[in-house]
Write a structure and sequence with these properties.
The protein has helices spanning 11-18, 40-51, 66-76, 92-102, 111-125, 148-177, 198-218, 237-240, 259-271, 283-292, 294-310, and strands at residues 2-6, 26-32, 57-62, 83-85, 130-133, 180-185, 223-230, 233-234, 257-258, 276-279. The chain is α/β, with parallel strands linked by helices. It folds into 2 domains: 2-102, Phosphoenolpyruvate-binding domains (TIM Barrel, Alpha-Beta Barrel); 111-310, 3-Layer(aba) Sandwich (Rossmann fold), CATH 3.40.50. The chain has a 4-stranded parallel β-sheet with strand order 1-2-3-4, covered by helices on one side. Strands 5-6-7-10 form a 4-stranded parallel β-sheet, with helices on both faces. Strands 8-9 form a two-stranded parallel ribbon. Helix 1 (11-18) links the parallel strand 1 (2-6) and strand 2 (26-32). Helix 3 crosses helix 4, helix 5 packs parallel to helix 6 (148-177) and helix 6 (148-177) runs parallel beside helix 7 (198-218).
Length: 312
């Protein structure tokens, strides 16, 4: 059974007081275009409060324009609905999908939510053959300029701790089956740490160490653990780093990977497990140089980048 609630202030608040949970497989939370501009902020607040902590609530939006869609998404998505429903055949759908790609939905899932997700997956499909840990984002700036909560704590929570807790949740199942493959998306910044990447690099170095240690813990059970270390990738990552305008350290265009290239590498590793993959392969030269002559690398970065931007 599916129940739907239209979130209109006043009416919705009365419905919420009576809303029984028994017997419902899913609850659809509506933010329709019939909600007036005056009432919409309160409707968003109600929708977010209702969805928070639930595993059965979907968000359905049908705004009058893309600006309203952006506001709806920014207001409600932090509550982590189970899914989003869009109006079929509407010309605004493509605009809304573009907005979904732009809004940073970095939700800090609790351990209980992660364990519930794995449990529901096992109930639905019976097994997990491959776990691909890919969630992550970056905030690139001088450490003293990063916000302690939004830029530091949240980045470590999403990039590192989420990966660890998800791997831990699926591991008993894989150990019982004596098979499985965990693929962790790291970064070349997990092998070479450039300036302004301090927290991002700390998380990715953490992934590298975790991947290596976990591989040695579980290989006796027939479980494979792989790490992927891509260089720069042409994705929406740059839209969310909030990089200061004066900080311009980035991958040259000829070295930048496409998302499709990275996806193909993940597919290859899933079929033929490897301990560690660095792409593009030429980045191995930088990894070796950083390991063999770190002083030389420090000097080069100081002359070409840090001294100029720090104006010291």
């Amino acid at each position: 059974m599916i129940r739907s609630f239209l979130f209109v202030p006043g009416d919705s608040e009365r419905k919420l007081e009576k809303a029984p949970d028994a017997g419902a497989d899913a609850i659809i939370v509506d933010l329709e275009d019939s909600v007036t501009a005056e009432n919409r902020p309160r409707a968003r607040e109600l929708a977010r409060e209702f969805i928070e902590g639930r595993e059965d609530a979907w968000l359905r939006i049908n705004p009058v324009d893309s600006g309203e869609a952006m506001a709806d998404l920014q207001a409600v998505m932090p509550a982590a609905p189970s899914g989003i429903m869009l109006p079929k055949g509407d010309k605004k759908v493509e605009d809304i999908i573009d907005l979904l790609r732009q809004v940073p939905f970095f939700h800090n899932f609790t351990r209980e939510q992660i364990e519930s997700l794995i449990s529901r997956t096992l109930e639905a499909y019976g097994q997990v053959d491959v776990l691909f840990n890919n969630a992550g984002f970056g905030r690139l700036a001088w450490l003293e300029d990063l916000d302690p909560q939004d830029d530091i704590d949240r980045q470590v929570q999403v990039d590192l701790l989420g990966l660890i807790h998800t791997s831990r949740a699926v591991l008993p199942h894989m150990i019982q089956r004596r098979r499985g493959h965990i693929i962790n998306m790291a970064s070349i910044a997990g092998l070479i740490a450039p300036p302004t990447y301090s927290i991002y690099a700390a998380s990715k170095f953490g992934i590298a160490g975790f991947t290596q240690a976990l591989r040695r813990e579980v290989d006796l059970y027939g479980i494979r653990v792989s790490g992927i270390y891509p260089g720069g990738v042409a994705t929406e990552f740059e839209q969310h780093v909030q990089r200061p305008s004066q900080v311009q350290i980035s991958t040259p265009g000829w070295l930048t990977l496409s998302a499709q290239q990275v996806a193909q590498e993940v597919w290859r590793i899933a079929g033929r497990p490897r301990r560690m993959v660095v792409i593009p392969r030429v980045m191995w030269l930088a990894v070796w140089l950083n390991a063999i002559a770190p002083g030389l690398v420090d000097t080069g970065i100081r002359i070409l980048f840090t001294r100029k931007l720090r104006r010291v």
